[in-house]
Amino acid sequence: MRILWIFAHPERHSLNGALLDEGLRTLDALGHEHRVSDLYAMGWKAVVDAEDFRGPGHERLVVGAAQEQAYGQGELSADIRAEQEKLAWADVVVFQFPLWWFGPPAILKGWFDRVLVQGFAFGLKDAAGTTLRYGDGGLAGKRVLIVTSVGARESGFGPRGIHGPVDEVLFPLLHGTFWYTGMAPLAPFTVYGADRMTPAGAQDATEALSHRLRGLSDEAPLRYRHEQGGDYDDELVLRPEVAPGRSGVAAQRLDARDRVPA
């Protein structure tokens, strides 16, 4: 497999740095190809602005339209084009970051904003003119894994924990970014209690990540509903007979109670 690893942590000599090192060693041992984008080391520019577009100046910057035009004309800035080339190359994308304020650091949010542009990752249509998203899109066929660390204890992210289950906390990324652009998200790999991690605990965490990566080829993704799968009406609301009694995040996931077409 070809794996792109996006690393978004400001300290390379950290628990996250050790996880990255072990992850890459494991991928090498398994014979996988990999590329790494270390965003802090790269000095990645995190904000979208007119400098992203090399074409003629815009009287009024409409970001989505400007991104799509610049992408189509090969006029996005070189750093964006380089990341898009890596992303197009990859079969699996790993996004590694510490969970800050229930989301990724700003530098990684900026990577999403600048790299996943209209016309490349989303905003595509099929021959019938249907917009391709939520299970389809420019990045369909790729799988994606979040590797994240949190300072809190695992119990706080349990079914009744104060923080909420981690796959719900990360729903905006898993569903709203990855699944929206067609990438199939795997269950996140989460290291809890990172702020109080002992050397033994760090060793356990790196070994657990290595074990997870060894099964990466066969791991099934989370089962979200396809927009064009028939579960949603024309207003993009679940039909009354779909997921009865469920709402919110839980209703967007397929589980054993759902009838899946053969």
TrEMBL record:
Question: What InterPro entries does the record tag this protein with?
Answer: Flavodoxin_fold, Flavoprotein-like_sf, NAD(P)H_dehydrogenase_qn
Q: Does the keyword Endoplasmic reticulum apply?
A: no
Quote the EC number: 1.-.-.-
The residues covered by the Flavodoxin-like fold domain are 1-209
Enumerate the Gene3D superfamilies for this protein. 3.40.50.360
Q: Which GO terms describe its molecular function?
A: oxidoreductase activity
Keywords for the protein's UniProt record, in alphabetical order:
Oxidoreductase
**Which SUPFAM superfamilies does this entry report, sorted A to Z?**
Flavoproteins
A Pfam family the protein falls into: Flavodoxin_2
Q: Which family does the record assign?
A: Belongs to the NAD(P)H dehydrogenase (quinone) family.
The molecule here is called: NAD(P)H-dependent oxidoreductase
